[in-house]
Each structure stands twice: as structure tokens, then as C-alpha cells.
Request: fold
Amino acid sequence: MAVQQHPQRHPGFRFPTLRKQQAAAKAAASTDTAATSTSATAYVFAGVRLITGFVFLWAFLDKTFGFSYATPTSRAWIEGGSPTKGFLSGVAVGPMESTLHGWAGDPWADWLFMLGLLGIGLALIAGVALRFAAVATTVMMALMWIAEWPPAQHLSDGSPSMSTNPVVDYHVVYAVVVIALAVASAGDTWGLGKAWAKLPFVRDHASLR
Reply:
């Protein structure tokens, strides 16, 4: 009598394959890397925001109180000095040379300039109203760029202008940096950006974010 042996099927558990495990590990590692990269980028933008804000705030404080760096104490704003007279009266080139000379030392020009420095500086350091700060910075830097007029090789008296770049100088760089900070919502990290955006009047006016 022949006995036929049939292969027995043993029920068992199916464990994930090594390939699936590796894929899951890679996905997890990729997510961690992306999160780390995003976090690092946010910190970099926040650092740039604080440094740039301090540049504007320091300019306001020095011109107001005369710390004897760019502004002597005797010419401080609180001592009756004019924050714009020295710069604007010294404009010696460009299409707005005579106009800027006429503005030099005018109270309205002093107040607008100083309020601009203070507003931009505080907004950047606090991380609020970055869109408004970007617009204000662009306008201020554009006017200062026109005052120095980098495209000119010579001043009105014929002397060399000593311009280092006819198009992109530090005024353009500052404007672009602040615009980038606003686009990147740089106030959300190390700043009050998120809390500011939740305020009712800010939600209703996107330009204030």
C-alpha cells in the first residue's frame, strides 16, 4: 500500500519584509531631515531679522542721543541737531540733488526719517508688521540710493564719485533682505509674529502682518 505524502501548509504570521522596513526607515529619516532643515532655516532668518533690526534701531538711537559714533553729542537730535541736514546737504550728484538740498534740515524730513528708522527697527526686532516694514525700508533705501546715485562716475564738481557698484549697493541689499524676511514670515521664530497675526485688526488688514 503506497502512502502518498502531501505537503502540509502551516499557517503562520507574515512579517514585514526587509524592503518595507528600509523604506519606512528612509521615509522617517527624510521627514526628520526636512523638519531639521526647516527649523534651521527659521532660526537663520530670525537671526538675520534681529541683526538687521538692530542696524536701524542703532541708527535712530545714535542720531537721537549722539553716542559719538556717527553722530557727535553736540549734534544729537535732542540737542537741536538735524538728522537729515548733514547727509542731504552733502548730496553732490544725481537727478534730485537740488531737491534734496532743499529738504535738508526741514522738520518734516527729520521726523519722517527718524520715525522710519525707529519703526523699521522695532518692527524687525519684535517680528511684527514685517510687510509694512518691507515697504518702508524699500522707500527709505530707494531715496537714499537716489541721493548717493551710484551710477554716476563723477560728482557734480567733476571729482570721482568712488562708487563701488553702479546698480547694487548696500541700500539695495537692505531692501531685499527686509522683503525676504517679510516673505519668509521671519517674525514667527524668536519674535511676536504669530501672536501679532492673531490680533483682530491685523487679521482684517493683511498689509499689517
Observations:
- The chain has a mean pLDDT of 89.
- Helices lie at 18-65, 85-89, 97-103, 107-126, 130-148, 170-183, 193-197, 200-203.
- DSSP finds eight helices and no strands in the chain.
- The longest helix spans residues 18-65.
